[in-house]
Design brief:
heterodimer, A: 112 residues, mainly beta, seven-stranded mixed beta sheet, four-stranded antiparallel beta sheet, globular, B: 113 residues, six-stranded mixed beta sheet, five-stranded antiparallel beta sheet, 11 strands
């Protein structure tokens, strides 16, 4: 069966520090991969999605970036975090077509 | 631009009650609609996916319906239990050659014992 791993679960970072969140999927190949952010009391905001290695689509201009160095690995990065980057970050995958999305457990990011 | 709305934002019901959660979307050109459950501080759990050609899907006590022409979906929960307490979100995947999903802001459900 397929599983998705996302880490770390929680992270506290100072303003201006770098960020790297990692997500990996097991038990499938060539998944569609997604990064979302969920701010308190708000819906999910799609940040990036990828349909293949090296193929990244950005949905919201900001100081975050994403990379897909391997088929089942999706990384969310920032060179300098802002206070507004605080939130709950969720990674998701889908086989594509008319198949459902499946989510990781999320990373709670707090910026001090 | 596709927009997804879920009303009410919060709902409290006594245990055992049957209930309906609503999801509205502005553009009927969709591939599918998916319902999720989110427990506090956790990721989303997929409940049901309805393809655009389908009218409804069922899983246990859950039944989701889709009326694409009117831009509405409902999630019916039968015989609610305290364990059903969570936030329920719907998401649509629009036509357009991409794999993006547009989410509603969710309905926070509390089932009282």
């Amino acid at each position: 069966s397929q599983t998705i791993h996302q880490w770390p679960a929680t992270l506290v970072q100072p303003v201006g520090s770098p960020l790297s969140l990692e997500c990996t999927v097991e038990g499938t190949s060539n998944p569609n991969l997604y990064w979302y952010r969920q701010a308190a009391g708000r819906g999910l905001q799609l940040l990036f999605y990828s349909v293949g290695i090296g193929q990244i689509s950005s949905e919201v201009p900001q100081n975050l970036s994403a990379s897909r160095p391997q088929d089942r690995q999706f990384i969310l990065s920032s060179k300098k975090l802002l206070l507004s980057d605080s939130g709950f970050y969720l990674c998701a995958w889908s086989p594509g077509g008319n198949q459902p999305q499946h989510f990781g457990d999320g990373t709670r990011l707090s910026i001090l | 631009k596709q927009e997804v709305t879920q009303i009410p934002a919060a709902l409290s019901v006594p245990e055992g009650e049957n209930l309906v959660l609503n999801c509205s979307f502005t553009d009927s050109a969709i591939y599918n609609l998916q319902w999720f459950r989110q427990d506090p501080g956790k990721g989303l759990t997929s409940l049901l996916l309805i393809q655009s050609s389908q009218r409804e899907q069922t899983s246990g006590r859950l039944n989701a319906s889709l009326d694409k022409s009117s831009g509405r979906s409902t999630l019916y929960i039968a015989a609610s239990q305290p364990g059903d307490s969570a936030t329920y979100l719907c998401a649509v995947r629009p036509f357009g050659g991409t794999y993006k999903y547009i989410f509603g802001t969710g309905t926070r459900l509390k089932v009282l014992a």
